[in-house]
Amino acid sequence: MSFHRIIILAFFPDTYIRQKKKQSLTWGAQGWQRDAHVRTEEFRNHGPRSPTTWVLVEGRDKIPNSALEAGKDKDGNPIYIARAYFEDSLRKFGRLELSRSILMFCLEIGKASRVFKEGAAIGYGGRVIEVNKTENFHPLLRFS
Known about the structure:
This protein has one domain (5-139). It is 28% helix and 37% strand. It contains two helices and eight strands; from the N terminus they run βαβββαββββ. Residues 90-104 have low confidence and may be disordered.
């Protein structure tokens, strides 16, 4: 099982960084969930507004049919692309010495399936960690 991490780097002035660094440490799971709810409601109420959308999913039985199927497991069950906030990843990356003008946000990329006990799994620290609250990837267009 292979997993990847999304890292977004943005450059800002030092005064902005000091202010945002304090906010980002407290953002955590609550901030991600709040933002994910907003993205999901926008998608449900107005449809896709961009070529791709991340939609919040809680549990294994609620993976929408519009989620992108990334493959199948050995038994032929569909596997979907998922991302989740994981508390330890923020702590680990917080120890990295980066330029003062860089902010870094990290979400763990994993996979979702209706056969997983919690609905999704991420790889972290050499372990597979099941999570029940993720966002699934939804493309506007599909190619066969």
